[in-house]
Amino acid sequence: MRSLVVGITGASGAVYGVRLLEVLAPMPVETHLVVSKWGQRTLEHETGRSLDDLRALAERHYAPGDMAALMSSGSAAIDGMVVAPCSARSLAAIACGLSENLIHRAADVMIKEHRPLVLLVRETPLSAIHLENMLKLARLGVTILPPVPAFYGRPESIDAMVDYTVARTLDQVGLRRDSNARWQGGLGRPGE
To answer: I want to staple 33 with a disulfide (CB 3.0 to 4.6 A). Which of 56, 58, 110, 118 is the partner?
Structure first.
C-alpha cells in the first residue's frame, strides 16, 4: 500500500481535492488529509460539502495546526503529497520554507526527502512573484500542475474537465489509472 498526503488550501477549486479523494478511496492508497481554515471555508462555499464529508473519504485526517502529525517528519512512511488546490499564499510559504501550518510543513518534508510533491496552483493572472516561486520549486523537483483543462477530448461537463486534471495529478505521483480523457492520438476533422 502507498501513502499520500492530500492538502486542500483556500484557493478556488476545492472540487479538485474532493475528486482526488473520491478517486483514491477505492485504490490501495492510504490517504492523509489536511484542510486549511480557508480551505474548509472554500470547500463549503464551492461544493456545499462539509469537512466531515471530506474526512469520510480519507484514511486519516489532521488539523492544520497539528505540527506533531505523522507527515511532519521525514522518518514517516509517506510516499508523496498533492496540494489541490494550492493557493498563492501556500505556494509562497512552501517556496520560502515557512512551515506556517501542517500543509506547508508536510510539503517541506516532501522536498527535503526528495519525495513527489504536486501543487495544483490556482491563481490567475500570475504575477512575477508567483512565477518565481513556481520556478524555484520546479528546480527543486516539485511538480507544478495548474488545473488547466484540455479540450482535445471534447469534455462535455465540468466533471470531465476535473477528472482530466485528477488523472494527470495521479500520473505525477505514480498512480496511473485508465481515463477516457487521455490523448488517443490523431486529429480528425470536426464531425469525424
So the answer is: 58
Helix (H, G, I), strand (E, B) or coil at 119: strand
Q: What digits encode the pLDDT tens for the residues 14-65? A: 999 999 999 999 999 999 999 999 999 999 999 999 999 999 999 999 999 9
Strand segments (E) across the chain: 2-8, 29-35, 60-62, 80-86, 117-121, 143-144
Percent of the chain that is helix, strand, coil (3-state, to 5): 40, 15, 45
Domains within the chain, CATH numbers bracketed: 2-172 (3.40.50.1950)
Burial (CB count within 10 angstroms: exposed 0-12, middle 13-18, buried 19+), residue 117: buried
Q: Is-contact 55 32, C-beta < 8 A?
A: no
**pTM for this model (two decimals):** 0.93
